[in-house]
Structure to design on (339 residues):
């Protein structure tokens, strides 16, 4: 993400829609991607993304620059996605559409589809086995490439908590992947 | 360092490149001797490679249009609420002020009239040639003279 100039932030905070569009263009990629990996279907990801940007628009005036814009927006994204996951679970809705995600992720050409191997598809499906909090840490680390410190700031948790969630999340994925392999062998 | 601790480091700092040189060296030495931990390392590396194949997905085109529309609508609603509130405030006060003013005006006129009447009686009493001062206590009446000067003289 390119650094957004201070005057663009100030302008967007005052309600300038073109300035806000600039912020959207720089950040919507990771917002949508994280939302999709957290909630596992496109409709929910779009809803979460829209919520995130409305919150960002309303909160820009109060954004005090104590963290970077990127960290701030990651925080809003993960919190919104986590709340959405909890609401979805509580209501019993479970719209899991693995195919939607991976067809959205891959390019349309057959060559590109072939390159987007089974391993990524399987892993993407296994993410659903994780609790939303563990999934958030793993997505931010593995897909978004955030450091432990950035994840800790974004989620407002200690670095050691990030570390232990990653350990548990990876152990769960290994365990689930071994079960899949055993099932396939049978 | 035992295998449990080694595998914790493998699944966190070691895999993510967040480990310091000394610890990394210690873990590498352990992996060279321990096939169980070495197998876990290979699985974790394969898992990490799998994540690299999960590409970031771009949001659909219509999403910005929806967000822009929502932002513009929200601003219009805020504007409407603000001007609507001011208009309602003015409306609330304007019609009620007429009878209030009228009533206040009447009270004022009455107060002035009472004041003027009281003042006039005082002046009449002060300027009159014969002024009677009397004290009335039950049936006893003391006639104290016809003027203040005569009384003291």
């Amino acid at each position: 993400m390119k650094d957004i100039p201070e005057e663009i932030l100030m302008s967007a905070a005052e309600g300038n829609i073109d300035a806000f569009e600039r912020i959207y263009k720089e950040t919507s990629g990771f917002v949508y991607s994280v939302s999709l990996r957290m909630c596992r279907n496109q409709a929910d990801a779009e809803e979460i993304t829209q919520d995130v940007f409305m919150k960002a628009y309303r909160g820009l005036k109060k954004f005090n620059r104590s963290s970077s814009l990127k960290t701030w927006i990651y925080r809003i994204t993960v919190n919104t996605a986590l709340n959405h996951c909890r609401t979805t679970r509580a209501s019993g809705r479970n719209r899991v559409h693995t195919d939607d995600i991976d067809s959205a992720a891959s390019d349309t050409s057959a060559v590109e589809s072939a390159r987007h191997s089974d391993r990524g598809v399987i892993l993407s499906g296994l993410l659903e086995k994780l609790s939303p909090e563990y999934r958030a840490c793993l997505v931010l680390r593995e897909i978004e490439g955030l450091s432990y410190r950035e994840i800790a700031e974004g989620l407002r948790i200690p670095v050691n908590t990030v570390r232990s969630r990653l350990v548990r999340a990876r152990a769960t994925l290994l365990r689930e992947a071994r079960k899949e392999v055993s099932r396939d062998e049978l | 360092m035992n295998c449990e601790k080694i595998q914790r480091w493998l699944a966190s700092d070691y895999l993510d490149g967040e480990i310091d040189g000394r610890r990394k060296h210690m873990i590498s030495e352990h992996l060279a001797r321990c096939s169980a931990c070495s197998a876990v390392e290979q699985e974790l590396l394969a898992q990490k490679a799998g994540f690299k194949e999960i590409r970031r997905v771009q949001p659909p085109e219509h999403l910005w249009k929806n967000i822009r529309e929502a932002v513009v609508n929200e601003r219009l609603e805020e504007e409407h609420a603000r001007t609507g509130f001011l208009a309602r405030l003015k409306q609330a006060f304007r019609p009620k002020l007429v009878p209030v003013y009228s009533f206040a005006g009447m009270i004022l006129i009455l107060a002035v009239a009472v004041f003027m009447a009281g003042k006039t009686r005082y002046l009449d009493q002060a300027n009159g040639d014969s002024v009677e001062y009397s004290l009335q206590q039950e049936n006893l009446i003391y006639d104290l003279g016809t003027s203040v000067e005569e009384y003291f003289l």
The interface with chain A takes residues 8, 11-13, 15-16, 18, 40, 43-44, 46-51, 53-60, 63-64, 66-68, 70-72, 74-75 of chain B (CB under 8 Å). The helical segments of chain B are 3-16, 21-33, 35-52, 62-127, 148-152. The CA atoms of residues 78 and 84 of chain B lie 10 Å apart.
